[in-house]
From TrEMBL:
Organism encoding this protein: Anaerotruncus massiliensis (ex Liu et al. 2021)
Protein name (database record): Multidrug export protein MepA
GO molecular function, one term: xenobiotic transmembrane transporter activity
Gene Ontology biological process terms in this record: response to antibiotic
Intracellular or extracellular location(s): Cell membrane
Parts of the chain that traverse the membrane: 9-30, 42-64, 85-109, 129-146, 158-179, 185-208, 307-336, 351-370, 390-408
Topology in membrane: Multi-pass membrane protein
Length: 445
């Protein structure tokens, strides 16, 4: 971690995490694709319940990123006992919170799906889909904790295998449960929770392999000191994912007056954007363990070198993806719901708008990863809140009443532009602070 050349080290760690993140996004994309064969309202239901899944993921990422960041710094400082306590605390806490989500979600199922933005025609589909997703909430959150903890220990390959196995299984089970067993949208949800459980089991086994920290209940230490560190490192992820859920709800509510086709179209665009963004997030997650280890070892020069390497590579890759998405936007939307011309029309224009701003996200995400990993919690949280919270929520409330469905389509790309401008100021401030630390302490390298 502290000796291997930065480009080779980050690339080695990033490839498995990119695959892991892309396959994670496949869960919902696969459901969107196969459910699209049922109808427009069913497709809209997947988009509605996605905000619930985003909450579940937000909890998992909070405990996973928070504990993982701390573990990386502890291992960098050779404090293995502290790392073990944090590993167990993050894992079992996520299991408990996931169980509470299941309990209260099932009790208040109908009000919940209405709150998520379901129309009267989407409601029956959303109810069937959400019921089974809630049953898997506990191990879904815990899986994300295991995935992040393995990754921060440098075992990205184990994390990739667990996530990949579940994603591939989900693609296979979706048509089986939906069409062969004739379970409709409920079958898609059952396929998802079964696949997530398989991932959970594989990741749990991965914690017993190699030099990874083994999770034992005796190490579970529910003390404020550890939860403070989890919140410190995990709150940005909670805000990012949690606000994504709120943003999706507001998007569904804003698109609702224009019909199920508008909800379905924006749902598809969100899934496509999420799939493309997952590659960037995975690349940034390959940087995080390198950043954490080297920051803990006070090798600040390597931290800055890794940051700039990630920015350069991600800008080029996202620009290529943006051009491809802009050119082939109608065909991409048609893959999911080509039978409905209105869905394709609304979705293609929204996707093209988002492609224009897409390359800007490289700077935003890598900056967020840097701030989160080195303990700049306030700056990381502001960046995490900005895209889907500080900027998107006001825009999605203001623009649709003024411009109709065009306002719905423009809200996200305008939010991305504003987030980029904010992140430029924050990013250069943090880089100057790192440079000052390097000069003050002297780089151990």
């Amino acid at each position: 971690m502290t000796q291997t050349p930065i480009p080779r080290l980050i690339t080695t760690l990033a490839v498995p995490t990119i695959i892991s993140m892309m396959i994670t996004s496949v869960y919902n994309m696969a459901d969107t694709f196969f459910v699209g064969r049922i109808g427009t309202s069913a497709t809209g239901a997947v988009g509605v319940v996605f905000s619930l899944m985003a909450v579940i993921q937000a909890i998992g990422f909070m405990f996973g990123q928070g504990s993982g960041n701390y573990i990386a710094r502890s291992l960098g400082g050779q404090d293995f006992r502290d790392a073990s306590r944090m590993s167990a605390t993050g894992f079992f806490s996520a299991l408990i919170v996931g169980g509470l989500i299941t309990l209260f979600g099932l009790i208040f199922l109908d009000p919940l799906v209405r709150l998520l933005g379901a129309t009267e025609t989407i409601l029956p589909y959303a109810r069937d889909y959400a019921r089974y997703i809630l049953l898997g909430a506990s191990y879904m959150t815990a899986s994300l904790v295991l995935n992040n903890q393995l990754r921060f220990q440098g075992s990205a390959s184990y994390a990739m295998v667990g996530i990949a196995a579940g994603g591939i299984l989900n693609i296979a089970l979706d048509p089986l449960f939906i069409f062969v067993f004739r379970m409709g949208i409920a079958g898609a949800a059952i396929a998802t929770v079964i696949s997530q459980f398989v991932s959970f089991c594989i990741l749990l086994v991965g914690c017993t392999r190699g030099g990874n920290i083994r999770i034992h209940f005796r190490d579970f230490t529910p003390r404020w000191e550890l939860y403070r560190e989890i919140l410190r490192g995990g709150l940005p992820s909670l805000w990012r994912q949690g606000l994504a859920s709120v943003a999706t709800i507001c998007l569904n509510l804003a698109a609702g007056p224009y019909g199920d086709a508008a909800i379905a179209a924006m749902s598809i665009v969100s899934r496509v954007n999420m799939f493309a963004s997952s590659a960037l997030i995975g690349f940034g997650q390959g940087f995080q363990p390198v950043c954490g280890f080297n920051y803990g070892a006070r090798l600040y020069k390597r931290v800055r070198e890794g940051f700039w390497f990630c920015v350069r590579v991600s800008v080029v890759v996202l620009a290529v993806l943006a051009v491809a998405g802009f050119i082939f936007a109608p065909g991409i939307i048609a893959v999911f719901r080509g039978e409905d011309a209105l869905v394709v029309e609304i979705g293609a224009r929204a996707l093209r708008f988002q492609c224009v701003a897409f390359p800007l996200m490289s700077w935003v995400i890598i900056n967020n990863m840097l701030c989160q990993t080195i303990g700049k919690a306030a700056k990381a949280t502001v960046l995490a809140m900005a895209r889907q919270g500080l900027f998107f929520l006001p825009l999605i409330l203001v623009l649709p009443p003024l411009f109709g469905v065009l306002g719905v389509q423009l809200s996200q790309p305008l939010s991305d532009l504003a987030t980029f401008l904010l992140s430029v100021q924050i990013g250069f401030t943090v880089l100057r602070e790192l440079k000052a630390q390097e000069e003050a302490e002297g780089d151990a390298a």
